[in-house]
């Protein structure tokens, strides 16, 4: 077990301990706020695309978890966070074979996100409920992850030399 | 810091700058090499896939042996398969004869850039069996490999085939300025494109000066091609028409279609990121039907859809497409035989020429669609429009023929029956190599001109 | 809380449950009423738009007066425009004659549900000019209005035309179970669909029992339609063919296309949310070309694209489409005249019938595309496939005719010239109402059968 853990990326280890910390001890305001931040989420390389596309979006100034965690009560937030967090950690350490080929928001995630859209944009949807589709992002397909092409700015520039070489071990 | 940056700059694989053997990359990039070796897998999809099967089989395009009669493509033409087979397949195909030229190796071997460097423009026209293939083999070349798309030292994507660079210039595009996104299609467009052998040097050339659409490429051949002395790929053995052969215009089709217009590159679908070896993510180097990897190839962008939805949708598009392709091919078959009858009935030459013009155009329009390998998916509307034009042109040929044959008192009902008999004979022949022979009979004598006397 | 819920339940506009006058909604929903009144605007786009112009104008479909010859659509047929004009336009169109039936009002007035309630099945066949229109006018009806799509008390979306409900049943769909997303298309599909008058009661009926595709609707008419005694809409005055007229199949076209398959509703594009009155947001009730509101109509979903990109892309799709539509119409014109010549040359009846079968099918296939109002956008591949079929069918008619005419020694070159002359004459006539008269001459006598003797 330890051997396996130490063979992992250092960043992942940090994350593992962070989550253990959150679940096992009383969380301080600071850890909580850090674990809401884009920097924290993008610690995991598999979150890169989500992060990069988000960072170039109209929502770059809000935190991942403004969308991805429930905000109706502090308890709910912590429970969802711990649950989601532990799945992420589990997948990235012991259960790595089972990591999905492509990440998709789970149904639970979608419900949470949708509620968050509504809570920020209450004013907009006052006259018209905007509920023609199941989720806000069925129409707003590109908010905030740019689904239509999933491409960031760097795709539209020449690639700096030797970039591919530096990714030789995968990324 | 600065030194890190500097070391990045000078970082190199340590390989020679003209390395062309795949094996040299194996230890440096084991994950990519392993992914590349997956190209050995042979597995079919509904309309495409990677099993080496004759294109003449009943579920593919059974009348091609009539439609390409008199040309190598009526003898042997197979479903394409993995990049690893390219060298083996070009070596074994019956389309290669003792007269074939070096140009045929251009898209099949990593030795080509070096051969061009060494031989200069003599490479293109050099004899394939005698000169070019033995050289490549002696060099220990690889079939389509790392060096075709990557600089062996920096691993930067690069263009290694001059024909593409030159053709893009005719479109006003300087490929050295390409973005990352463009390069992810350009590396494919070195090969997955329509080409012809420019007659003076037999050089591989792409007919794009007027545009990428089938009509624009046709106009190129009629004007620029003919000016260069390139009139035809062959004389059709049924209708005696000087024909054009179309080849794998994936790039041209895609670039005019919904994904091309939206900037979705070939690699997005055919080289999706995949998680290998537990959790490392690489760009897949298994080039095959994306229908085998819908999750990675499509659902990254179409995240709101399910794998089943994508399957069904692609099937609907392809089924609509194939139905009309088969129709266009059938009308084209009839046109060829009608003109054969015009010839044997000694109809006015001018009328024969007029009908042949329509045949040439009609066949170009379905062939540029049939030779494309996505069964319509790369551009559903555009390929369908091209098929409409094909149907109209072939019908024009039939109409001219009917007028002239009726004048000569030929029984066209009998003619139609005879054509159907030929189609059945070709369809029912089990040996793909013999199918072409059933296209010709006493009532439909071959029209291939006798070979010119030896010099 | 519970009381809030209860008050929601009992909340009502306070209007009568069978209110049908738009003005009754005005004070309750001023923003929506105002948005609705925007439908008065007349403004064109490249291929569509809202200016009441004849469809026969040079930039539209100049040969329709030949293609619909013998039918009202050759007399007057205009570009459609805003919902507010529906009543005025049906009242003034020259297609309405003294024999027209009540069914013609079905998609033009808010009085219709009430008329059906009162008159029962007698509504459909009642005389338009004498009975139905005067009744609607006396009621103070509105052209297509709030009550057509909304329950006046709850404002819930609802279906008010029984034809749609019944036709969906033949497809196994119970519209009372529709989701909100489906209702956002179903309300439009009450009217924007292909229909015919079922002969026993002249009732508006949608031919969907076999499916929504043009081939499937054609099969419906050949089997179910004919069984009911519905053979044709009219006898073509040039070719004497019993014809079908196709009408505005927006719903059928969309449902088989990329957006329909992806669950994007009519309202998503044609009724986008818009900010009015400073900052209040509503569902737009200005039904027109979404090319006038690309930002709201398209960019919400296609956020990675620019307005200019969308414009260009739609233009490319529509231009490809219109080119082929014009081609298909031209071939169809020739087919009609060839068969006219068969008739005057007294060719074998069986052959004439065979050619007419192809004409009927060929015209159905282009008309179901031409009558659709998006210039191909609602289904770019599907409409193009349908046009291919049209071109093939019309050519079959020409081919049969050519064989028979040649047997009779008719000069087909002269025939072609004469056809071109007719086309020119129709094209050059400035008065749209007179265009149809140029289709017929001494060499091409009209084929409309004499009216049956009065009972
Ligand atoms: Ca293949
Ligand atoms: Ca209009």
Automatic annotation (TrEMBL), chain A:
GO molecular function: electron transfer activity; metal ion binding
Keyword Aminoacyl-tRNA synthetase set for record: no
SUPFAM superfamilies associated with the record: Multiheme cytochromes (SSF48695)
Domain NapC/NirT cytochrome c N-terminal: 12-146
InterPro entries xrefs: Cytochrome_c-type_ET, Multihaem_cyt_sf, NapC/NirT_cyt_c_N, NapC/NirT_cytc_sf
A Gene Ontology BP annotation from the UniProt entry: anaerobic respiration
Stated family: Belongs to the NapC/NirT/NrfH family.
Stated name of the protein: Cytochrome c nitrite reductase small subunit
Naturally occurring in which organism (per UniProt): Anoxybacillus tengchongensis
